[in-house]
C-alpha cells in the first residue's frame, strides 16, 4: 500500500469524527448565543466567531439559523434525558429511585441555566421549532416511560398511591426545579433572596424531594381530586 493511499484511508476514517466534532463545537457556541440573546437576537456571524468555523460551514451543516436552533434544542433536551437514562433507577427501590430522580433533575436545572433559558425562549415561540422534531419527541417520551415504570413498581410494593399520571408528575417535578432558575432574577429583586445561594438551594432541593414523595404516599390521594384528568 502506498503512503498516499494510506493517508487517504486515514483521512477517510477521521472525517466522520471531524464532522461530529465540528457540529458539536457549533452547537456548543450556538447554545450560548441563543440562550443569551434568543432566536431573534442571535447572530450566525457571532456563533461562527465563537468557533473555528465559518458562517457558510454552519449553513452547510444545519441548513439555516432555524435549523441550527432546532439542533441546539435537540441537544439541550438530549442532555437531561441522557442523565436520566444513566441513573439505572430500575435497580433501586421505588422511593429511593424517585428521590434520586428528583435530586438529579434539580441539580441539572441548577447547573444548566442556559437549558432553562432555551426552553423559555422556545415557549415564547409557542414550541414551533420542537413540534416537528422526532428526536425531541422520542427522548422526552423516555422520561415518561421511566416515571411510569417507577409508579407501577411503587404502587405494586405499596409505597406509592394508585392513579398518578406520569405526565402530571413530570410537570410537578419540572416545575419545582425550573421556576427557581427561570425566575431567580425577578425573585431576587422582589424578595431580596438569592435562590442560588447554597443554603437556599439545599433547602429547595430537599423541599422538592419531600413534596414529590409526600404527594406519592398511598394515603396522599384522600381528599384530592383525580390526578389523571
UniProtKB/TrEMBL annotation:
<dbReference type="InterPro" id="IPR001647">
    <property type="entry name" value="HTH_TetR"/>
</dbReference>
<dbReference type="InterPro" id="IPR050109">
    <property type="entry name" value="HTH-type_TetR-like_transc_reg"/>
</dbReference>
<dbReference type="Pfam" id="PF17938">
    <property type="entry name" value="TetR_C_29"/>
</dbReference>
<dbReference type="Pfam" id="PF00440">
    <property type="entry name" value="TetR_N"/>
</dbReference>
<protein>
    <submittedName>
        <fullName>TetR/AcrR family transcriptional regulator</fullName>
    </submittedName>
</protein>
<keyword id="KW-0238">DNA-binding</keyword>
<feature type="DNA-binding region" description="H-T-H motif">
    <location>
        <begin position="43"/>
        <end position="62"/>
    </location>
</feature>
<dbReference type="InterPro" id="IPR041474">
    <property type="entry name" value="NicS_C"/>
</dbReference>
<dbReference type="InterPro" id="IPR036271">
    <property type="entry name" value="Tet_transcr_reg_TetR-rel_C_sf"/>
</dbReference>
<feature type="domain" description="HTH tetR-type">
    <location>
        <begin position="20"/>
        <end position="80"/>
    </location>
</feature>
<dbReference type="InterPro" id="IPR009057">
    <property type="entry name" value="Homeodomain-like_sf"/>
</dbReference>
Amino acid at each position: 500500500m502506498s503512503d498516499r493511499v494510506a493517508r487517504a484511508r486515514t483521512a477517510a476514517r477521521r472525517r466522520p469524527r471531524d464532522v461530529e466534532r465540528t457540529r458539536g463545537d457549533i452547537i456548543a457556541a450556538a447554545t450560548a448565543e441563543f440562550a443569551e440573546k434568543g432566536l431573534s437576537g442571535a447572530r450566525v456571524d457571532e456563533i461562527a466567531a465563537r468557533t473555528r468555523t465559518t458562517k457558510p460551514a454552519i449553513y452547510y451543516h444545519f441548513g439555516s439559523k432555524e435549523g441550527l436552533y432546532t439542533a441546539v434544542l435537540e441537544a439541550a433536551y438530549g442532555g437531561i434525558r441522557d442523565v436520566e437514562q444513566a441513573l439505572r433507577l430500575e435497580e433501586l427501590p421505588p422511593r429511593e429511585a424517585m428521590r434520586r430522580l428528583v435530586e438529579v433533575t434539580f441539580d441539572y436545572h441548577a447547573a444548566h441555566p442556559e437549558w432553562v433559558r432555551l426552553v423559555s425562549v422556545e415557549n415564547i415561540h409557542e414550541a414551533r421549532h420542537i413540534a416537528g422534531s422526532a428526536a425531541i419527541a422520542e427522548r422526552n417520551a423516555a422520561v415518561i416511560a421511566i416515571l411510569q415504570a417507577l409508579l407501577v413498581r411503587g404502587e405494586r410494593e405499596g409505597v406509592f398511591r394508585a392513579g398518578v399520571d406520569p405526565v402530571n408528575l413530570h410537570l410537578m417535578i419540572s416545575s419545582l426545579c425550573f421556576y427557581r432558575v427561570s425566575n431567580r432574577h425577578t425573585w431576587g429583586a422582589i424578595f431580596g433572596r438569592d435562590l442560588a445561594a447554597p443554603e437556599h438551594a439545599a433547602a429547595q432541593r430537599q423541599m422538592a424531594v419531600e413534596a414529590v414523595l409526600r404527594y406519592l404516599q398511598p394515603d396522599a390521594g384522600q381528599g384530592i381530586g383525580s390526578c389523571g384528568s
